[in-house]
Amino acid sequence: MKKPSISSIQSQLILYFAIAILVPVGITMIVGVTLIHDEIITRAQTKAIADINSAKEIYRSKLSHIESITRLTAVRSLIVGALARRDAPFLRTDLGTTLRRENLDVLTIVDRNGIVVARGRNPHLFGDTLTSDPLVAHVIEHRHIITGTDIVPREHLLREGPELAEQASMEIIPTPKAKPPLGDRETSGMMLRSAVPVFDAANTLQGVLVGGVLLNRNYELVDKINEVVHEREIYKGREIGTATIFQGDLRISTNVKNDDGSRAISTLVSEEVHTAVLKDGNRWLGDAFVVNAWYITAYVPIRNIEDKIIGILYVGVLRQPFDDVQRNTLAIFLGITLGGILLIVLIAVHQARRISRPLKTLEGVARQIADGDYAREVTIDAPDEIQHLAGSINQMARKLEKEKNELEEFAGTLERKVEERTDQIKKIHSQLYRSEKLASIGKLAAGVAHEINNPLTGILTNASLLVEDISADDPRRDDVEIIVKETIRCREIVKRLLDFARQTKPQKRLTSINTLSDNIILLVRNQTAFRNIEIVRNLAPDLPEVLADTDQIQQVLINMILNAAEAMTKGGRLDIASSLSGAGESIAVRFADTGPGISEENRERIFDPFFTTKEHGTGLGLSISYGIIEQHGGTISVESTPGRGSVFTVLLPVDAGENGGHS
Ligand SMILES: Nc1ncnc2c1ncn2[C@@H]1O[C@H](COP(=O)(O)OP(=O)(O)O)[C@@H](O)[C@H]1O
Ligand SMILES: [Mg+2]
Hints:
Layout lengths: L5 H69 L2 H9 L2 H14 L4 E6 L4 E4 L14 H9 L3 E7 L1 H7 L1 H7 L1 E2 L13 E2 L2 E11 L5 E10 L5 H11 L3 E2 L2 E2 L1 E7 L2 E5 L16 H9 L4 E7 L2 E11 L5 E10 L1 H51 L13 H86 L6 H27 L6 E3 L1 H13 L7 E7 L6 E3 L1 H18 L4 E10 L4 E8 L6 H4 L17 H11 L3 E7 L3 E9 L10
Parallel strand pairs: 16-18
Antiparallel strand pairs: 1-2, 1-7, 3-6, 4-5, 6-7, 8-9, 10-11, 10-14, 12-13, 13-14, 15-17, 18-19, 19-21, 20-21
Helix pairs in contact: 1-7, 1-9, 5-6, 9-10, 10-11, 13-15
The protein binds adenosine-5'-diphosphate and magnesium ion (MG).
C-alpha cells in the first residue's frame, strides 16, 4: 500500500502561503523602498537648495554689513573734514580704530584722484595710486557705492598689509578628480569689498572709502552659515552641515574638517562641479564625497561686480542621517516581512497538521476496516470536509458490517439447507431402495404363498379329518393335533405373506390416533407378556384426526408395542407419546423402550422382510408396518443406543390426502 505523502500537504501549504505573502510583500518592499529612497533624496535635495539659499543670504548680508560700516564711516563729518584737510594722522588713527572695532581687514581712504591718503591697517604706506582698483575706478567715475566680491592680487594685498598677503597665500594640494591646477600656489586673495564715495558739504566728491574683508582662511562666514542653517548639529561625531567658499576652484574657507581636526582648505573642487558652476555658471546639486564623508551638496557661483564668475559658495548636508533613515526603514520592512513569513510558516504548519493528523487517523481506520474490523467509530476534530469524510467512512463501515453479517447468515442458511436437502435425498434414496426391495420380495412371496396355500389346505383338511377319526385316548391323537396346529400356523404365515404381497390400498377415514392408541394399550396391558413392563402413556390432547386406514394403523401400532415387549423379556418401561410435529402438518407417535437396543448393522436391516433376530420371529412386522405407513405418506424411523433402548417414531401426515404411497 502506498503511504500517502501527508508531509507534502504541509510543505505545499507552506510553499503556497510563502509565495502568496512573498510576492506582494516583495513588490511592496521594492516599491516602498524606491519611494522612500526617492522621498529621502528629494527631501535632502530640497534641504540642500534651501540651505544654499540661506547661505547666499548670509553671504549677501555680510557684504551689506561691510557696505554699511564703510558708508557710515564715509559720511562722518570728522572723516570728510580730515580728508579735505588731508589730515593723514587723524585718518590713520580713526580708520584704524573702526577697522579693528568692526573686524575689517581693509579700510583705506583715497582722494578723488585715487591716491591713497590713509590706511587703517598699514598706516605707514600711503601716497600710492589705487586707480587700477576696479571698485575705486567705478566710484570715481559713477559717484555711487559699489559692493561685491573681488579677487585681489598679491601686490595689492602686500600694500594693504603684508600679513593679509600671507593669509591669502596657500599651496594648492593636488586633489583627485579635480581639474589640474595652473600653478602650485595661489597668492591672490578673495575679498568682500565695498567702495563708498566721500562727499563734502557742497556734495563734491572728495574721495573714496574702501572697506573689505579677506575671505581666505577667514572662517567667520562659513561658521555662521553652519550655525544659522544647521545650528551646529552634530550627527555621530560629525557636523551635519558644511559650508565652503571657493576662490575659483580652490577651497579657501570651510568648516569641513580633516581627520586631524584642521580645516580642509587648499584642495580643489571636482572637475564636474568646476565645469558646471565655474564654467557654465549653473547651480549644481548632487552627492559628493567631501574629504571623508558623503554629502548631499549644492554649489552656486560667486560673481564679481562685473558679473564674472570668480568663485563658488557651497553647502552640504551629511548624507549619513538620510542613509540611516533609509536603512532603518528597510530593516523594519525586512523585519515585518520575515516576521510575516515566520507567522505564515507557523500557521501553515498548524493548518497542515490540523488536516494531516485526522487524515492519518482516517488512514488507520480505513486500514482496520480493510482488515475486517468495522467496530471502530471515528470521531475527530478536523475541518468540515474531513469531518464529512470521517462520517462517510463510519457509514461505510456500518454498511460493510451489516452486509458481512447478512452474508454470514446467508452462508449458514445455505449450509443448513444443503444438509437438509442431502438428508432428504438420502432418505428418498433409501426409501426407494427399500420399496423396490419390498416390491420384488413381495412378488416372490406371493408366488410361493400361492403355491403353498393349496397343499397346506389339503394337509389341514386331511389332518383335521384324521383327528376326528382318532379316539380321544389314542396316543397318536396328540401328534396329529400338532400337525393340525403347525399347519394352521403355516397358513397364518402364508396369509400374512399374501397380505404383505397384496399391498392393499388403504381404506381411509378420519381416525383419532389417540383413541386408537388408548384401545391398544387397554388391550395389551393385562397380557402376560406385559407383566413386568410399565407402560407410560403420554398422549397430547386436542390432536387433529388424520385420514387413515384404521385397521392398518392399528396393526402398525400393535407391531411397535409387541416388538418393544419382546425386546424387554426381563421387564422394563415403555413410553408411548403422541404429539403434533413440525408446524402441525403431521402427528408423531413415539415408542421408547428400555430394551437392549439395536446394533448399528442390524438397524440397517430391521425393515427388510424376513429379517428377524428371534427364534420364532417372522421378520415381517416392521416391513409390513413400513409399507403401511409409506402408503399413508408417513415415515417410520428408529434411533437406538445399544444397551440402553430403542425409540421408534411413526410420523403420519395430518392431511394425508391422496398423495401418499406407492401402490
Ligand atoms: N423394540 C425393539 N427392540 C429391539 N429390537 C427390535 C425391536 N423391534 C424390532 N426389533 C428387531 O427387529 C427385528 C424385526 O422385527 P419384526 O419385523 O417385527 O420381526 P419379528 O418381530 O418377527 O422378529 C426383530 O427380530 C428384532 O431384532
Ligand atoms: Mg415383530
